[in-house]
Amino acid sequence: MKRFLMVVPAVALVLGSTTACATKKFVRTEVGAVNDKVGTLTQQLEQNEQRTKENETKIAAVDERVTQTDQKAVAAGSAAQDAKNAAAAHNVWETGLHQAAAGDTTCDKCKKVVPKARTNFTADGTICDLCAAGIPA
Ligand SMILES: [Zn+2]
User: Fold this and answer.
1) Domain ranges of the chain
2) What's the gap in Å between 95 CA and the centre of ligand 1?
3) Is the pTM of this model over 0.85?
4) What residues does the ion ligand 1 have nearby, CB within 5 Å?
5) Taking the CB of residue 50, how many other CB atoms lie within 10 A of it?
6) Residue 119 contacts by C-beta under 8 Å, 6 or more apart in sequence?
7) How far is the CA of 117 from the centre of ligand 1 (A)?
8) How many whole angstroms from 133 Cα to the centroid of ligand 1?
9) Residue 89: predicted pLDDT
């Protein structure tokens, strides 16, 4: 009984110290591994932050370009509308010119510009109805 009592603490001491050493070593190894991981993750986090900043800068630049392109498109649309209006005005002017050329003429007698429908072809030339009727201008 006395011998058994001596063996138990000895075994316990050996086991205890071995377990304690193994535990310290295990903890040291695990902590080291965790530290390495934290270091790696910190590095990756810093890289991600850097990339995020770069992406934000790029997005801002793209946004600026889109705004500029939009303004150019609006300006181009406005210029196209101006050109269309100018062409329409030119067409109106030209149509009036053609109508005048086709519809009006100058009386050879009184020299007034009169509608062709109100003229007569005579030996004296093209004369207006009033001149043809002998009514003085
Ligand atoms: Zn006339």
Assistant:
1) 2-103, 107-137
2) 26
3) no
4) 107, 109-110, 128, 131
5) 10
6) 105, 107, 126, 127, 128, 129
7) 13
8) 10
9) 83
